[in-house]
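Much of our argument rests on the idea that a fold can be written as discrete symbols. In the encoding step, the backbone of a single protein was reduced to a row of integers, each denoting a local shape. This step matters because it turns folding into a mapping between discrete strings. For completeness, the protein is quoted in full, as a sequence line and a line of structure tokens:
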Amino acid sequence: MINKLLIGILILLIGVILLQTIKTRKMESYIQTVEKIRSTLYDVAYTISNTDNEEEIYSRILNTSIKLIPYASKGSIIILDDDNKFYFKTLVGYPKDLMNISFRKEELFINNIESKESIIIENPFKFDENFLSKRNINKLKENNALDISCTISCPLYIDNDLIGLLNIDSTSYNKIFTEEDRIFMNYIKNELELVLKNSLTQKKLRYMANYDELTGLINRRYFKSIFIKEIEEIKKEMSMLAIVAMDINNFKCINDTYGHNIGDGILKVFAQVLKSSITEEHICARISGDEFILLFKNYTLENAENKIKEIKNELRNLNLVNINLDFSYGIYCVSYDDKISLDDILIKADREMYKDKKKYHCNNEKG
């Protein structure tokens, strides 16, 4: 009787020890996984902090998440845009054609739950059929984007504002995500939200340092740094640049007559016309007050003059009550073999602009 009792106690002790050993090993494995995630995310955060490329930021976040979660083979990040719709920012394992699709919040899982944590969707196709529009379902089918067995979908928040969703997908029907995967994904999500917040904060600070708050054009300081690089480029390419200095006519009179709010509105309209008149390869900057600069790559004097005529015509067609929006300008062309400093280039363009300004005032006085 005693022997049986001792044997029972011994078996119980062995069971407790085995359970404790299993728990310890699981805990060690969990700690190792967390350390791996933390180390990987640290490297990602460092890389992201040194890039301005939004596409690269989201791509690194997605690829890292797929790498860290077992059985994950595909994924996507969709971000809320200004039109209050969600668009794909980056994809892994899916055709780029999906980038043209947009989603309303009502079509996403996040609209149907209150939790900010990740969730496992074991039958994504069924979920999509219930909530997505027929148009989006058909687009996903056309691109073979519904062959998913399981998804972990993570809402991304910054300062309690939903900015998007990170989706990690598995295509193995015998391998679905576990609760442990979801817990790890929540950890990854929390870390990534901090990375994104830091990245967006830095981006905002860089924008404030380089762009004019009122018009959205690059400012004088940033223009000069870009101009230096462009001068170096034309020497390498043996090409040329046309620099146009511009000053809005009678801007002080507009401010004095209609007030600074109207004056600010005029500056915004003028900047918008300039931006819409040039292609991405060219540069537009607000230097100060009502002074602006255009930099045209591979433009001759004649090319620049023709472009200025187009801009003036567009300004004439604006429906601005009692305000005739016009400007004086000066053009200076720089060739690859010119021996002239950046400041002297700007001075020469300014001189030409003031000559034009003088003609404008003389003509008005005669009129």
